[in-house]
């Protein structure tokens, strides 16, 4: 059919839709300029911003030279107790079982604690200083302690959110609202992907799963090609990625070509960028059919490497730990995830999110914290050491993150006789970072003698994100996307780069 015939047969609605982005836009721009609501330069920019079908995954130029190329963000959903892992408080142990003065807790918010009858809870853990920097870790994290001189420990993180799902959204997307892009999406939006055969943003899980679910790796209003792709560490890497039995490659290729032709034609009619994302996702899925099985096949790794990551480790004896599910070997799964993360960044994946849950230990803290810490300590330390010995750590940022911390008060929820756990505590918590041009062997920030308030160098989640983006050569103030008449960014309306972290 000729081009003239195609346009002649368009419906009135299609013609008006097309006009709205052409002649109609010109008329609207002219009227707004006359009213002083739009400059001529802005009007011209709007007319030239027609959606283009371009390779979303192609690398983009950074704002300035970058130190980091990839990020592995290990998200400890549920909030580990910083007081039992990273921050010893002798005074808290001395005041164990004593009440907290009302002047301290009266302005605080709690999820479950009844503050008027709550008492302080010391830690039974022993702490050791590691490395030349003398960084403290509890007896539950001896392997991470061995990486102390490569780690930046931030003891002064804080958030406004004291419940899990809002807090997890805040940590992943910079705000506690649904429908916002997460940091992996923002990073790929700003820089594009380094890999042609794998997604720029991959997600893996272990344990029970986070309360935030898939909302923690969504692209929000950014094109869907920037969403996190959920990978599995055994079997088929992505569900339904493999071809059904009996489908020859040439028939699959013919089907993809037909889909691309239909989508391309529709895109030319409506200029919907989601159609462009759909085309590119189909093509990426086709290339992944070869790349993904090779990625998840660990047979090329040495036995020493597998042992270092703890692949094949058995879970701790016992059942019903907070961080596992029946018939799931969390220790093996998490070790595989960390090893796969290294293999992914080797192959150009920009952002890897490992989500491990749950650290929400309102009761049986000692038992459950030991389980979770033992599951993750060896593999994360192995990942950092492996990246370093391969010369990859300088360009790969590794982050241990969570949504908030735990209270110095014991959990005294109604109906529970013993204070065996800790409640939510967004006022102060701890995170770890390594690589990516960040300065290792340093502790940033301080909290008071019982671990309640920050007393030095507070760090908001938006500050963390601003600093991470900076290491990738991105100015957090310039990395924006206009949606529904407003420019959005990962750091919302806040955020500052923390210069003392940078090498």
What does this structure look like?
- The protein is an alpha/beta fold and 503 residues long.
- The protein has 2 domains: 3-47, no CATH class; 70-501, Alkaline Phosphatase, subunit A (3-Layer(aba) Sandwich).
- The protein contains 16 helices and 17 strands.
- The chain has helices at residues 3-8, 12-20, 23-34, 40-47, 82-85, 90-94, 102-105, 142-145, 164-173, 183-191, 249-270, 273-296, 303-309, 330-346, 365-389, 461-471; strands spanning 70-77, 127-130, 135-138, 151-158, 201-207, 229-230, 351-357, 396-401, 405-410, 422-425, 429-435, 442-444, 446-447, 454-456, 459-460, 481-483, 486-488.
- The strands form 5 sheets. Strands 1, 4, 5, 6, 7, 8, 11, 12 and 15 form a 9-stranded mixed beta sheet that branches. A two-stranded antiparallel sheet has the order 2-3. A two-stranded antiparallel sheet has the order 9-10.
- Strand 13 and strand 14 (454-456) form a beta hairpin.
- It starts with a helix and ends in a 15-residue tail after the last strand.
